[in-house]
What does this fold into?
Amino acid sequence: MKVISLWSGGKDSCFACYKAVSQGYQVCALFNFIDHIRKRSLSHWLPSELVLEQAKLTGIEILQKAMPKETYEEEFKNLVMDWKKKRDIKGIVFGDIYLQEHKDWIERVCNGLEIKAIMPLWNRDTSNLITEFINKDFEAVVVTTQADLLNKETLGKKIDNEFIKNLSTKIDPCGEKGEFHTLVIAGPLFKGRIEILKSKKLLKGENWLLDILDWRIV
It folds into this structure.
């Protein structure tokens, strides 16, 4: 089955895509949505150029599109319908794990489009899921945090067993409620790795952000 996979640059979308490929789905493209003003990925604050270079490491085509918040759903549905007609896409891969309101939106939109919602991570225990992600040799670093839960020193840290062990019980091991977001820099889905060469830490509203200024692909 031909499918598209939503791609944020973070661990959950990446692992969901990996799982879908492992399950035999033909992932024809990655869809990455960015802020139409700042040219940064939604929620993860990653430079659009970095996400494009990251996606190239997978060998999968990427479509990157600016999405105004006010018309997000309409734009999303129009885009998917276009790919359904022109590329015979029959499913969309999502990286959501347990937030029911997200699943409700996904099912409503996909049912309306008559397209299959594929959720390889749904309802998985997040402690087991993050351990599996690490054990599969994926590498990811923290790029945003909720400032009241994780301080700026957390930015840039690698997601490994020590990181998970030291998390407060108030924080989901996968950061599913937005406690932190990540950038995947290497793993079995990639043909190379990303090295961050220069960055700075910013406090924006209620979040710490790792502003990645320079990187290289090796």
Observations:
- The chain has six helices and nine strands.
- The helical segments are 11-22, 48-56, 72-87, 100-113, 126-135, 161-165.
- The first helix runs from residue 11 to 22.
